[in-house]
Specification:
Blueprint: H1 3-13, E1 26-30, H2 40-49, E2 57-61, H3 67-74, E3 79-82, H4 99-105, E4 109-112, H5 115-120, H6 125-137, E5 141-146, H7 150-154, H8 158-169, E6 179-183, H9 197-215, E7 223-227, H10 232-239, E8 246-249, H11 256-264
Parallel strand pairs: 1-2, 1-8, 2-3, 3-4, 4-5, 5-6, 6-7, 7-8
The structure holds 1,3-dihydroxyacetonephosphate (13P).
Length: 269
């Protein structure tokens, strides 16, 4: 069987789910507003720990202040990303950072629309979509975050809320190469609580359907990451679920030892 035929057969065998569809998992660390120069030692340790090529893609998003030095420390052992970017390439936007600046400092990706940006900086879906486009303009992959609040889940609205965020935040011309979606239930971030495995599977299947509806068949190859209290103790279980194509890790990405354990749970599909 040719490679193409084998891939088609594999796709048929697993329907529209991501598992088994050659989607290499992406394990991304989001340091948020944490990290001083001394913490670059964690990245050195991460590099040492990744000496044996991992089965998945590895990305760390340190604060912008450390990005250039982090790129030096990573030396190609893992990729680096920003945590946010402005939609414009340059201009009078005091305190902001552009996607081009992140790229210039060594980033290959940027997180956009994280719930902490939506909550504390009033970012709306259309702002997030503009930032995703800015990322592409600069040659960065956009990791577009979505997720429901606890009140929205309790009201039975988790699926429509996330579907609406995809419709508003993911530009229609997104591709699997330039975009990943991170599903981060707001109530699971930094709380130690995670959705049940059944809820993660149901939500990721829903997100897959929404992405395919929006982007067409290429939506099947867009990676959907889970984020929210991912730790060494639960990473393997989460990363083995259907249509979970990686993880976006906050607190547990700050220490190389923990993050390496999570990376070790990543799978090549
Ligand atoms: P925690 O892993 O600390 O819950 O954070 C998740 C997150 O917000 C990653 O972007």
């Amino acid at each position: 069987m040719s490679g193409q035929a084998a891939q088609a057969a594999a796709k048929k065998a697993c329907g529209e789910t991501g598992r088994g569809m050659n989607l290499r998992q992406l394990i991304a660390g989001n340091w948020k507003m944490n990290g001083l120069a001394a913490d670059l030692a964690e990245l050195e340790a991460l590099k040492r720990g990744l000496a044996m090529a991992p089965a998945c893609d590895v990305l760390v998003c340190p604060p912008a202040s450390l990005l250039a030095r982090a790129a030096e420390a990573a030396k190609g052992a893992f990729a680096l990303g920003g945590q946010d970017c402005h939609a414009e390439a340059r201009g009078a936007f005091t305190g902001d950072i552009s996607a081009e600046m992140l790229k210039d400092a060594g980033a290959s990706a940027v997180i956009v629309g994280h719930s902490e940006r939506r909550q504390f900086h009033g970012e709306r879906d259309q702002d997030v979509a503009a930032k995703a486009r800015a990322a592409w303009r600069a040659g960065l992959m956009a990791i577009i975050c979505i997720g429901e609040t606890e009140a929205e889940r309790d009201a039975g609205n988790a699926h429509p809320v996330c579907g609406g965020q995809i419709g508003g935040s993911v530009p229609k011309d997104a591709t699997a190469a330039n975009t990943a979606i991170a599903y981060e239930p707001v109530w699971a971030i930094g709380t130690g609580r995670t959705p049940s495995e059944a809820d993660v599977v149901a939500m990721h299947a829903h997100i897959r359907r929404c992405v395919v509806e929006r982007l067409g068949p290429i939506g099947r190859d867009v990676r959907i990451l889970y984020g929210g209290s991912v730790k060494p103790s639960n990473a393997r279980a989460i990363l083995s679920l259907d249509d979970v194509n990686g993880a976006l890790v906050g607190g547990a990405s700050l220490k190389a030892r923990d993050f390496l354990e999570i990376v070790g749970a990543g799978m090549p599909h």
